[in-house]
Amino acid sequence: MVDVGLRNPEPITEGTFDLSDILAHSTIKPSVPTRDEIDLQEEELIQGEAVVQECSNPPIFVTVSSPYEVEKARRDLPIIMMEQEIMEAIYENPVVILCGETGCGKTTQVPQFLYEAGFGTSNRLDRKGIIGITQPRRVAVLAAARRVSYELGLKLGKEVGFQVRHDKLVGSNCAIKFMTDGILLREIQTDSALKHYSVIILDEAHERSLNTDILIGMLTRVVNARKVET
Ligand SMILES: Nc1ncnc2c1ncn2[C@@H]1O[C@H](COP(=O)(O)OP(=O)(O)OP(=O)(O)O)[C@@H](O)[C@H]1O
Q1: Cα angle for residues 28, 1, 12 (degrees, 5° grid)
Q2: What is the Å distance from ligand 1's center to 103 Cα?
Q3: For a pocket test of ligand 1, which of 110, 112, 147, 156 has the largest count of ligand atoms closer than 8 A to its C-beta?
Q4: 106-140 in b/e burial notation, b at 16+ Cβ within 10 A?
């Protein structure tokens, strides 16, 4: 309903309705929207479309059944408080650098944040593909893969897999894959856009291992290649 603010309100009966009469007795005047108002309306419309697009993405359901003691221990890790900020940074940027004290949960928790958000399992284009995590040492690959599969209540060799030189346990529906940086370097040579992956995490990048340093250089090209494709 629009209140036209009639100075001398008289009931308008059927057949006598005339907009010019109403406006003549009205305190409000018709106004032509200014350029700024039109721009603002268009901007609101575009934002509205963005919301509609976001809502049209299918909902993502990821079932996780972690052991109780794991859930309890996770709550005390400093990184858990940062989950939302980390995930928003990942959604909004092609490259994110994560710094945190030793033991705060970078290696074990970030892959879980991603998995719980549907990376590795969802059919959404932007989250489709394995979560790949590299480590400079093979011992760390095995330990992290075992730990993350245990924390998520998943089976090692199925949803969570690993690959090091001469040893590989990766299932056909693998969602999280731990590997040495050397393994990923070899994969890039045959798949220059790393199509099978939705996210790549280079763990321990500050150690500046030769393979990780080369990977950082090559991944800058992968980021650009994937930008062109999308
Ligand atoms: N194999 C494991 N068994 C039991 N607890 C573990 C295991 N791996 C990690 N944790 C626990 O999870 C916590 C987080 O470890 P995580 O390796 O994710 O930390 P981080 O931030 O990556 O450390 P760093 O910088 O040293 O790599 C640790 O404090 C440790 O208590």
Answers
A1: 75
A2: 5
A3: 147
A4: bbbbbbbbbbbbbbbbbeeeebbbbbbbbbbebeb
Q: Which residues have any ligand 1 atom within 6 Å of their CB?
A: 77, 100, 102-109, 143, 147
Token pair in block for residue 192: 């220059």
Residue 150, judged by CB atoms within 10 A of its CB (0-12, 13-18, 19+), counts as: middle
- Answer yes or no: are the C-beta atoms of 107 and 175 closer than 8 Å: no
What's the complex ipTM?
Answer: 0.96
Of all atoms in ligand 1, which is nearest to the CA of residue 143?
1
* CA-closest residue to ligand 1 atom 16: 105
Cβ within 8 Å of residue 195, ≥6 positions away: 129
3-state secondary structure of 20: helix
pTM flag (> 0.90): no
What pLDDT, in 10s, does the model give residues 167-185?
999 999 999 999 999 999 9
Per the DSSP assignment, residues forming a β-bridge with 130 are: 197
Spacing, Cα 83 to ligand 1 middle (Å): 16
148 Cα: distance to centroid of ligand 1 (angstroms): 10
